[in-house]
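Recap from last week: sequence in, structure out.
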Amino acid sequence: MTRYVALLRGINIGSSNRIAMAELRELLTGAGFEDVRTYLQSGNVVLSSTARADALAERCEALVAERFGLDIRVVVRTRDELADIIRRDPLGDVAGNPKRYQVSFLARELEPEVAARIAAAAVAPEQVVISGGEIYAWHPDGVARSKLWGLLAGRTLGVAATARNWTTVTSVLALADE
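Predicted structure tokens:
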């Protein structure tokens, strides 16, 4: 049995894509996943399964579509992969506010031209590091007018992605370890 983190993209933002976490936990537990827990209302799920990560993501997407009628992408990492993402933390010595430090989790690595476009969009004092299937981005002035954040949050990456701030990333790992 593997401990996983399933990250649902774009739920419970404003009035769109509303999913109650209690209903999501019930749905996933009913589908046979074990020790299902959620963190906050933004689609951070910790669960255990014997499935492979890609099959788990597809199954979660299908369950959400069937139960809630929503087309939601799901990006999955194992508990150990999440711990490694935190351990690698390439911007920890400059990112002073964990709420403005984002990690984008990608379903697969970016195409080189997309990665180059993202790197070019980081205008000082912002910083970005693309590392495998994650993008670490420091937005010291917030994301409101950030061209970089616009690229990361949009659908122009060519791959399913969802972002979490550093506080959420570390809290989800702590939840997986309980």
